[in-house]
Fold:
Amino acid sequence: MNQSQGRRKTNRQTSYRRSSYIDGNVVRVADPVRELQRPPKKVNKAVRKNRDRARYMNLSYVMFLSVALVVAGIIIIGYLQMQAQLTVSIKQVAALESELNDLRLSNDEKLERINSSIDMAEIKRIAVEELGMSYAKEGQVVEISGEGSDYVRQLGKLPQ
Structure:
């Protein structure tokens, strides 16, 4: 087998590979020479103008984007700080509510202890026997209508 026959066989195999389709193979063999020989696609002026405008960024646009980025950063930082303050406040409120409940329980326990230690019969006995107090008789009780005010001021002697 001479050299030219070996090349032909290789060229045939290569051309066969390029033109044949193997199941599952969807890759197209690129031909750069053919791509360069194609005439360029004609693009509408408006499309070309839009593309040029999209590629071009002037100083004012860059400055606008920079300012927008800084403002967005400041807003996000402020939001995060407010969120942290809210979390701290919620924890403080929860701690104060817990303390209030503890104080209420303690107050109720002390009130119950005081009320259970008071003997009303003994207080009545001391008031009547030792201090000489007596129940009010008829005519000694004077009812005064407050007519919606919180207190009544006595300016003279009560009638007897």
The first helix runs from residue 3 to 19. The chain has a mean pLDDT of 80.
